[in-house]
Amino acid sequence: MKLRELLATVDDVVQLPQHPAMDAEIKNLKTNSHACVAGDLFIGMPGTRVDGGDFWQSAIASGAVAAIISPQAAQKHPPTPSACVVTADDMTKTCAQLAATFHDYPGQKLKLVGVTGTNGKTTITHLIEYFLHQANLPTALMGTLYTRWHGFVQTAAYTTPFAVELQQQLATAFDAGNEYGVMEVSSHALAQGRILGCQFEVGVFSNLTQDHLDFHLNMEDYFAAKALLFSPQYLKGRAIINADDSYGKRLIASLKPEKVWSYSVNDSTADLWMSNLSYEPNGVSGTLHTPKGKVAFRSPLVGQYNLENLLAAVGAVLHLGLDLQLVASVIPEFPGVPGRMERVQILPEQDISVIVDYAHTPDSLENLLKATRAFIPGKMICVFGCGGDRDRTKRPKMGKIAAELADVAVVTSDNPRTEDPQRILDDILEGIPETVKPIVMGDRATAIRTAILQAQPGDGVLLAGKGHEDYQILGTEKIHFDDREHAREALEERMKR
Ligand SMILES: CC(=O)N[C@H]1[C@@H](OP(=O)(O)OP(=O)(O)OC[C@H]2O[C@@H](n3ccc(=O)[nH]c3=O)[C@H](O)[C@@H]2O)O[C@H](CO)[C@@H](O)[C@@H]1O[C@H](C)C(=O)N[C@@H](C)C(=O)N[C@H](CCC(=O)O)C(=O)O
Ligand SMILES: Nc1ncnc2c1ncn2[C@@H]1O[C@H](COP(=O)(O)OP(=O)(O)OP(=O)(O)O)[C@@H](O)[C@H]1O
Ligand SMILES: N[C@H](CCC[C@H](N)C(=O)O)C(=O)O
Ligand SMILES: [Mg+2]
């Protein structure tokens, strides 16, 4: 596409230069000046640290055909006549419009399902992907773990990619023959306009509890970001909303009733709800009531929160036209999600349970501890930490929850990032009452090993916070680290004793 044609679709361009490059072919879009090569259009995004537009000269020196930047960046680094530099007021909108136009609006060609909420997005999107695949509908999945579809998988850097990468991935997914796209939509993505240009046939809201208060000013601001997914700008079809969540209730009240299906674990006035519930150590069974009829089901996912995830996913696929009987018949075979309530088992007759889970917020840690209590006959030993350079205020809350709900709390490092690991441990310990004596071990590998070796037959060791992650971020370095591998090693050592 020629630069001139591309820019014609952007609303906010302030100034178009007279430059031969306006008729040049654009091969790719880049938001990182260091990644620019010949044929690229550099989009200089204002960020929290710097304004990318300040680097237009280096982008052009690396071969970029042109740069599009904010008027502020242009003022600081005035364009020279030899360079093709375009200015635009709203760079967020501009970037998303450029990306969507360049890739020919794939977010409007795929039938998109967007899932937002503090916890459960990855689980719900996996359930929806599974149901659609069982109905033989070609589906792309995008989220925390990976972008994948039949014959393709790529590890994800973000839960929701930035606009340029997002539109490119959606276009590749559409070109590969997918009809559906199931996406986790993070509050960061909504606040930063990463999904501008996408239209959703279904929007799911799972819940809102504390997280990310380093990025959002407060819970209202966090809620406002999540609620954006349900605005007419994005949501064309139906909203599937958790009516057991207080923010979910507010969202339902703010939308036209005919656009919403609510779900609840126990409220029969909701559109999707349950009766005859039986919570078992290895799953849940009951009767599922839906706008398309009722059906008996058995789910292999443990705990009430996973039942909520199931209701959300069933609501989404029923709206997309799947048959309720088919959906119910495949639930028992759902293979689960990596790093979510994942058992580490090296022997069938292992004397302790070891569970890896991605609980990294107060609410998810509480849910995890309550759900696992049901099938751990002995003591519960919870190994956990908190991420550095992220919401500090959740740390003492997680400390308190672990102290109250586990029998032994082992406080260790998660991803310290550039923070002093000891400071993170101290923040967690602040929430632990004096009467409780946690084990404190900064080195996560040692903490996992100690917990597994100390456990008595019947005990459960919960390794929380890192789930599927196969790395640990120490400072700015990313090292290989996988809770499951360390757990397996420690289990082998335990068996030899
Ligand atoms: C808060 C946030 O989302 N920050 C993202 C943001 O960083 P920033 O605003 O500080 O960027 P910046 O460093 O000021 O740079 C601004 C722009 O200038 C460009 N630049 C910069 C320097 C240079 O020399 N040349 C250049 O072109 C950068 O590429 C960037 O486009 O833009 C960066 C570049 O695209 C991202 O890497 C960074 O993600 C950070 C690392 C991050 O961790 N984000 C997490 C919190 C995140 O987005 N998480 C959500 C939610 C997960 C959940 O729900 O749990 C997710 O969707 O993954
Ligand atoms: N519906 C839910 N309500 C509360 N907690 C949940 C729910 N679903 C999952 N959890 C807990 O939260 C953890 C993370 O779940 P999941 O990965 O599905 O959420 P997510 O919203 O994708 O998280 P992230 O924003 O970090 O990507 C799980 O490991 C589990 O402990
Ligand atoms: N998507 C979450 C991941 C947290 C995972 C945890 N292991 C950590 O590093 O804090 C976030 O960006 O806050
Ligand atoms: Mg996720």
Automatic annotation (TrEMBL):
Residue ranges of the Mur ligase central domain? 115-316
EC number in record? 6.3.2.13
A Pfam family: Mur_ligase_C
Task: Please list the residue ranges annotated as the Mur ligase N-terminal catalytic domain.
Answer: 25-102
Q: Which residues carry this modification: N6-carboxylysine?
A: 226
Q: Does the keyword DNA repair apply?
A: no
**Which residues does the annotation say bind meso-2,6-diaminopimelate?**
390, 414-417, 465, 469
Q: According to its UniProt record, how is this protein modified after translation?
A: Carboxylation is probably crucial for Mg(2+) binding and, consequently, for the gamma-phosphate positioning of ATP.
Question: What are the GO BP annotations of this UniProt entry?
Answer: cell division; cell wall organization; peptidoglycan biosynthetic process; regulation of cell shape
Its pathway is:
Cell wall biogenesis; peptidoglycan biosynthesis
* Cellular component terms (Gene Ontology): cytoplasm
Main localization category: cytoplasm
- The name under which this protein is listed is UDP-N-acetylmuramoyl-L-alanyl-D-glutamate--2,6-diaminopimelate ligase
